[in-house]
Amino acid sequence: MGNLGLGEMLLIGVLVLIFFGPQKLPELGKALGKGIQEFKKAGREITDAIKEEPSDGAKK
Q1: H/E run at residue 52
Q2: Of 9, 16, 52, 57, whose CB has the highest number of CB atoms within 10 Å?
Q3: CA 6, CA 34: separation in Å to the nearest integer?
Q4: DSSP per residue over 11-25, as a string?
């Protein structure tokens, strides 16, 4: 579950082309890329905050 084969990827690509048209694809790709970057950035910030926070055992 979760693995997409070549057939599924092609079907998704065709559906995206039908719904949005070729003019919108670069815009959609750019928006998707920015969304992924923001998600990764938020994940790194949370990870860094957890690493910087001292553990409860260190306070005693």
Answers
A1: helix 25-52
A2: 16
A3: 25
A4: HHHHHHHHHH-TTTH
Angle separating helix axes 6-20 and 25-52, nearest 10 degrees: 120
Distance of CA 2 to the CA centre of its chain: 15
Provide the token pair at 18: 């039908």
pLDDT tens figures, 1-60:
578 799 998 998 899 889 888 888 889 889 999 999 999 999 999 999 888 877 665 554
**Could you say which DSSP state residue 2 is in?**
-
Distance of CA 9 to the CA centre of its chain: 17
CB atoms within 10 A of CB 37: 10
